């Protein structure tokens, strides 16, 4: 039986500084000659013989006279050129031999990303078979808050673990169990509304989407903190998406274990917030369902009435994520928190527009938008603002219902989905929606192929800058 969550990742921590830590000397590509001049002649000649050029992430081991490694060089790339590879210095994790390492001559502006990338690169998913972690360990660079970064990475590891788990072991039951384990770890309260109780408690869209599966749909409601601003995180928890009766082709169904990436990301962000002990009243809402095919499945052209009272014509059962989010957002909005953040692996249109690595976000709040953009830049967590474009509102208004869950034509799909969700948040001034991918298609520094969190660090920075600080309130 695979282990329950959260998995322990003891490798995702820094080591204590000591005289035994080996120097990892950072070399800007456009200052290679000066850097080599500062080395002993034997080491400089060795680096030149190895063809070391200072390219971003390039390493060169430096031996002593007996052939023992006593230091290493790592390239920073061009100091004045925009970085083309995020977490480039994390490449060293898999190339350096076992031991404790400490950056030398690392520019202050690069320390946060270098330290974060190192820990993220150390992550391994090991639920089903052993996965040996790299043996090179890092001393946290001076001026970087080690405990804060370790909290970031613990949250990211939880997100990755949840997304990486296949749907046979990560259905609504298991997602609830993971949320309960997280709540127990931090003394949070949790309530779950399941199955037909969803109808009795006025969550008709969550029930409709999940009722075809033998794995009962549910709404997970986690609460933590008794003082401070009220922040609600809402995450799409579609544990597998066949597309329903508008069934997906096999080529589109292959990655649908990640369709609960929004839920995984908000749980990871909650793990960070609670781990840091922020002065917040945190609420996490996750509609957890499996969009399956059976005689009980909801149908194309069904008209469903939401918790908000808005009627929705279902023109594609594969646009189910916005349906379950609608009921959860309506519940969140009723409490009028200081801010609502919604995260979902929602549309292919967002991937076509921006690719897998750059999630769009939507908000009408200019202060929050600025804080999110700033957080994305400073936290190595890229985002791109997209508009709630009012002229497209008519596209989500069908003839026989208030809303259409899948407008014909396919144009502006991410925007129309965001507009749909905004209809369910009318009482809360600060609302932001994130259309994330939740998956790393090919291995990159700090991001192995597989599940990945997106936006959590940027949201945390925005919460601290624009909500906890009272700015713009």
From TrEMBL:
<dbReference type="InterPro" id="IPR011356">
    <property type="entry name" value="Leucine_aapep/pepB"/>
</dbReference>
<dbReference type="GO" id="GO:0070006">
    <property type="term" value="F:metalloaminopeptidase activity"/>
</dbReference>
<dbReference type="GO" id="GO:0030145">
    <property type="term" value="F:manganese ion binding"/>
</dbReference>
<dbReference type="GO" id="GO:0006508">
    <property type="term" value="P:proteolysis"/>
</dbReference>
<dbReference type="GO" id="GO:0005737">
    <property type="term" value="C:cytoplasm"/>
</dbReference>
<comment type="similarity">
    <text>Belongs to the peptidase M17 family.</text>
</comment>
<feature type="domain" description="Cytosol aminopeptidase">
    <location>
        <begin position="316"/>
        <end position="323"/>
    </location>
</feature>
<keyword id="KW-0031">Aminopeptidase</keyword>
<keyword id="KW-0645">Protease</keyword>
<protein>
    <submittedName>
        <fullName>Leucyl aminopeptidase</fullName>
    </submittedName>
</protein>
<keyword id="KW-0464">Manganese</keyword>
<dbReference type="Pfam" id="PF00883">
    <property type="entry name" value="Peptidase_M17"/>
</dbReference>
<dbReference type="InterPro" id="IPR000819">
    <property type="entry name" value="Peptidase_M17_C"/>
</dbReference>
<dbReference type="InterPro" id="IPR048816">
    <property type="entry name" value="Peptidase_M17_N_1"/>
</dbReference>
<keyword id="KW-0378">Hydrolase</keyword>
<dbReference type="Pfam" id="PF21337">
    <property type="entry name" value="Peptidase_M17_N_1"/>
</dbReference>
<dbReference type="InterPro" id="IPR043472">
    <property type="entry name" value="Macro_dom-like"/>
</dbReference>
């Amino acid at each position: 039986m695979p282990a329950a969550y959260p998995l322990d990742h003891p490798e995702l921590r820094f080591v204590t500084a000591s005289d035994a830590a080996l120097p990892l000397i950072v070399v800007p590509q456009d200052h290679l000659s000066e850097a080599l001049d500062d080395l002993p002649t034997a080491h400089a000649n060795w680096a030149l013989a190895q063809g070391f050029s200072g390219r971003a992430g390039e390493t060169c081991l430096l031996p002593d006279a007996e052939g023992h490694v006593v230091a290493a060089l790592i390239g920073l790339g061009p100091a004045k050129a925009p970085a083309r590879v995020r977490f480039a210095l994390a490449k060293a994790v898999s190339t350096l031999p076992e031991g404790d390492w400490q950056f030398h001559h690392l520019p202050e502006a690069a320390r946060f990303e270098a330290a974060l990338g190192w820990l993220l690169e150390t992550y391994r998913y090991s639920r089903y078979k052993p996965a040996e972690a790299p043996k090179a360990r890092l001393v946290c660079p001076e001026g970087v808050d080690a405990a804060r970064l370790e909290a970031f990475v613990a949250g990211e590891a939880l997100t990755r673990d949840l997304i990486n788990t296949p749907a046979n072991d990560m259905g609504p039951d298991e997602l609830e169990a993971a949320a309960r384990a997280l709540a127990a770890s931090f003394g949070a309260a949790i309530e779950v509304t399941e199955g037909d109780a969803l109808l009795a408690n006025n969550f008709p869209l969550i029930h409709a989407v999940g009722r075809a599966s033998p794995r009962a749909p549910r709404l997970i409601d986690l609460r933590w903190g008794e003082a401070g601003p009220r922040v609600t995180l809402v995450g799409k928890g579609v544990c597998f998406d066949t597309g329903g009766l508008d069934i997906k082709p096999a080529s589109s169904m292959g990655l649908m274990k990640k369709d609960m990436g929004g839920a995984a990301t908000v749980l990871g962000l909650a793990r960070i917030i609670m781990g840091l002990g922020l002065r917040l009243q945190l609420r996490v809402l996750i509609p957890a369902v499996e969009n399956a095919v059976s005689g009980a499945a909801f149908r194309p052209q069904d008209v469903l009435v939401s918790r908000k009272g808005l009627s929705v014509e279902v023109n594609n059962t594969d646009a189910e994520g916005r349906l379950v989010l609608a009921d959860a957002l309506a519940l969140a909005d009723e409490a009028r928190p200081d801010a609502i953040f919604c995260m979902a692996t929602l549309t292919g249109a967002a991937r076509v527009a921006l690719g897998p690595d750059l999630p769009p976000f939507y908000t009408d709040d200019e202060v929050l938008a600025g804080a999110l953009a700033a957080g994305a830049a400073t936290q190595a967590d890229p985002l791109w603002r997209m508009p709630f474009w009012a002229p497209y509102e008519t596209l989500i208004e069908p003839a026989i219902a208030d809303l259409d869950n899948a407008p014909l034509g396919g144009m502006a799909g991410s925007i129309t989905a965001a507009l749909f969700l905004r209809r369910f948040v009318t009482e809360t001034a600060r609302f932001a929606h994130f259309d994330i991918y939740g998956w790393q298609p090919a291995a990159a520094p700090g991001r192995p192929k597989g599940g990945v969190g997106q936006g959590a660090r940027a949201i945390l920075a925005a919460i601290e800058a624009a909500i906890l600080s009272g700015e713009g309130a």
